[in-house]
């Protein structure tokens, strides 16, 4: 060992555990498994386009029954919340 001699770094032949041998894609890229099927993932310019894409995806989904069920559950939970805080619903109805 010389005083002016620099040590060489060790080199390792590392391949990630879940990387396929075909060389497809970047093994270090973190990506959700459903990103290829969604329109809402990606570079959207503004919040308006994000909401527009999300609503279009919701309309085009094949599970219309699931969407209706979610809306019914949200409505029931909202009514329960309004009942708990003692909200007066009579302000929405006109008195004759």
Low-confidence sequence ranges: none
**Tell me about the biggest sheet?**
none
So what's the overall shape? elongated
Mean pLDDT: 76
The N- to C-terminal Cα distance equals 101 Å
Number of E-state strands: 0
What share of the residues lie within helices?
25-40%
Q: Give me the number of helical elements.
A: 2
Assign the structural class, choosing from mainly alpha, mainly beta, alpha/beta, alpha+beta, or little secondary structure. Answer: mainly alpha
> What series of H and E elements makes up the topology?
HH
Q: Assess the beta-strand content as a share of residues.
A: under 5%
Rg, alpha carbons: 28 Å
Please give the oligomerization state of what you see.
single chain
Give a structural overview.
By secondary structure, the chain is an all-alpha fold. 36% of the residues lie in helices and 0% in strands. The chain is built from two helices and no strands. It has helices at 47-60, 64-84. The longest helix is centred in the C-terminal third of the chain and has 21 residues, at 64-84. The radius of gyration is 28 Å and the shape is elongated. The protein starts with 46 loop residues before the first helix and ends in a 12-residue tail after the last helix. The relative contact order is 0.05. The model has no long low-confidence stretch (mean pLDDT 76).
């Amino acid at each position: 060992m010389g005083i002016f001699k620099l040590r060489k770094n060790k080199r390792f032949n590392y391949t990630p555990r879940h990387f396929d041998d075909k060389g497809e894609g970047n093994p270090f890229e973190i990506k959700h498994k459903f990103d290829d099927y969604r329109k809402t993932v990606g570079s959207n310019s503004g919040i308006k386009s994000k909401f527009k894409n999300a609503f279009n995806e919701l309309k085009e989904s094949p599970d219309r029954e699931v969407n209706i069920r979610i809306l019914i559950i949200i409505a029931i939970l909202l009514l329960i919340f309004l009942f708990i805080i003692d909200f007066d619903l009579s302000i929405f109805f006109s008195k004759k």
